[in-house]
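ASSEMBLY PREDICTION REQUEST
Request ID: AP-0331
Submitted by: J.K., bench scientist
Number of chains: two
Total residues: 965
Priority: normal
Notes: Please return the full assembly, not individual chains.
Input sequences:
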Amino acid sequence: MRYLPLTEADRAAMLAEIGAPSIDALFADVPPAAQVKGLFDLPRAMGEIEVERALSRLAAKNLPAGAAASFLGCGAYRHHIPASVDHLIQRGEFLTSYTPYQPEISQGTLQALFEFQTQVALITGMDVANASMYDGATSCAEAVMMANRLTHRKKAILAGDLHPHYRDTALTYARFAGADIATRSPHPDVPEDIASLVSEDVSCVVVQNPGVFGHVYDLAPLAEACHRQGALLIVVVTEVVSLGLVKSPGEMDADIVAAEGQSLGNALSFGGPYVGLFATREKFVRQMPGRLAGETRDVEGRRGWVLTLSTREQHIRREKATSNICTNSGLCALAFTIHLALLGEAGFTRLAAINHARAVGVAEQAAALPGVQLLTPTFFNEFTLRLPRAAAPAVDALAARGVLAGVPASRLWPSAGLDNLLIVAVTELNTDEDAAALIAGLREVLR
Amino acid sequence: MSEWSKALGGFAHSGAESATISGNRGLQIEEPLLFDQDMAGRSGVDLPSPPDVTERLGALRRERPIGLPGLSEPQVVRHFTRLSQKNYAIDSGLYPLGSCTMKHNPRLNEKLARLPGFADLHPLQPLATVQGALELIDTLAHWLKVLTGMPAVALSPAAGAHGELCGLMCIRAALDARGEKRTRVLVPESAHGTNPATAALSGFTVDAIPANERGRVDLAAMRAKLGPDVAAIMITNPNTCGLFENEIIAIAEAVHGIGGYFYCDGANFNAIVGRVRPADLGIDCMHINLHKTFSTPHGGGGPGAGPVVLAARLAPFAPLPWVVHDRQGFRLVELSDGEAGHALGRLKTFHGQIGMFVRALAYMMSHGSDGLRQASSDAVLNANYLLARLGDVLAPSFPGPCMHEVLFDDRSLRDTGVTTLDLAKALIDEGYHPMTMYFPLVVHGAMLIEPTETESKETLDRFVTVMRGLVAKAEAKEGAAFGAAPRFTPRRRLDETAAARKPVLRWRPAAEPSKAAE
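STATUS: Completed
Returned structure:
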């Protein structure tokens, strides 16, 4: 077996040194009834050629988004990843190291995390950010728990156009932690009045911007309404490229930002692994979940980085920790950081502008189709169309011709009466030909 | 120079000796922050001008600059290459970090995870276009079920701690369905910190069980803590002392006898995979760290994946989504109704860490049933070899045989003035990543060494020579040299107290002072 260096001679010599008659003897503590003597009913070892052939065969049964005209979003976005991102994250020193427990030989990871935290704080407009969470939804659930701790209240209000997977994740976490979550039904075409619902027993309001249907919101009035009642405003961002063009949550006075960072540096990968962003005000940092890299000095007085404020964490505080999270999405965070470093201010803002402009172009063409209505007057790179008939069969029909037309709302809300709604995302990767294929395809299947 | 470093001034002289004009030391090149390399207008990505359209942002266009630095592509590539060179990694050498399982990460797995047929799939594509991805998930599930003997597996948890949460929430959900309110979870003192943290997050109170003198759960003490309010016992097996819980079947029977569940932390499944089926030990649910047992890369701290295998009586409570196979092919159960009426709900977005599933399955297929058995055998052999070769100079906390890792404590160093931390830092100067230090908490000055099966005998022999040499130095009262270690690293010992006292968690422009934390 190519990954195992010990030879039979090595094994014999080592057993002699140990004084054991066989490897089986080393497993003497395992109850005999639980020792499996033979091999499991699974295939035997394979060489690289066979494994590559078998898994390539599975991969070939899928339609890669890049082989189609793809307009899917709703929490995962197909953006261009510069070639150097994937090259750099595959350097063995990043790929095959672990959590930087020994800072003297982990300065590379630690400095990159410090840069990640700074970038996240900058684009969200917040004071501080942690070293990442599993994904946007777990980040959001942890933000609700943090708001409950900070306010000593238990009731959270989730906006109706929060991504349903985020809503459901928060509900699962809250169910067992004894928190109370008020959810709202989706409202694709009418603005929602949450401000009037905020009372003095509410710990936080969770709102997504842009919303899951695409609307872009001015959250400053909601922030004010929350703060008036002593509640916190949590802003979810599922498309971080929007932050290159849209006013940041920090500028609208958000208290916590929980975001999905996949759009920068990370492939779609059928839904994971992704990277959760978590940012907040400096005064809340000691209630924050997750790892934090911090600046310090070494004995020679040189600047360096360490993991810090670990007294919040499970390995020190055990059952009193702010979260059970251990390590999370290090390499995905690194990919995010490298991509954003390449873009810089000029590239990031231009990328966002391209996304918006291309989406506006496609939305206007789609809205001109007979019987099709654009439900989102404002949006960033994702908008919602009301089709004259059910969206899911239309999407299936278009997929068969190589157009992934968008996400039918019924995939996310199966019984909410939203069957005719189609949520369409457009990025810098969508060409004019893609747009033409979408419009022609919609015209045909809606005929 | 800070006060702290002045206090250690006697050890800090090597900086002056190796002073260079640049501050670099050969291959150790000082690298400023990205933010200190900013040049406005520079970018490492060429993008076209956006098409001219009428904006649809309402009044919400960002007005102020963000403050991101501008760098060209060669600068970014050099920056991250230099940073990478300040990291130790499995690719660099032995990384015997106990309980973390730092074994070789095959590059085939990286290649396969990047096939467009996996990497370029959107999670919400029509199911007809992702049949191969669903088949991959189903195949991984099959391997995990056969290897553990358990009938069901929840694949969405993103990491070990997330898997623990999944397991304890399934237990809570099952108890709710039984109409029982049980509040207490028993957790051994030697448990990883995530265990009690997870139990608390799942709404339970934590009751610690002591270890016996053999480093295992004290069965009598555990039985004494059982009662009708005990929801579950949460045990790591092999445990964090590197030992197999030989009374595990009695433990399972005892907890089942009072109507509780047995959660197993499967962080150390790599010691027994292919030789022992957790189902045969009476376990009701167990998470598996794909990044440990099945070698998906640790990535500087994630991403991992923590699937949870479930006994039949917990399976209905598994979180969504599930992959099922029927006459129409593979499909996803995404809603908690009908066939999934008891499902826990969601634990994250979408369907799990697919990129990690591809890597883990490639690893399993490469090994096969024969290779997996050999891998756990060699992991245990390597650890016992280190126990045999170091047991006379370091103090083994418990008699062997051990499983995949060996635990020493600091008794043999007690009169030398050298601590576990000092020994770890001295190992760094010798070119090794240290073992896990000060964990588990049940012995003093713990040193938990996990060599893994992907290390050769020659590597272990060299490590033994170094470790024996360091202990000899310590016994020769050369303690001062230990206090100065590490000396040959990009940074020497860092002031963690100062970092925590006044946290600096981000770069700020010189003109923008940090607001003080409350």
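REVIEWER COMMENTS: Chain A touches chain B through 216 residues (CB under 8 Å).
SIGN-OFF: pending second reviewer
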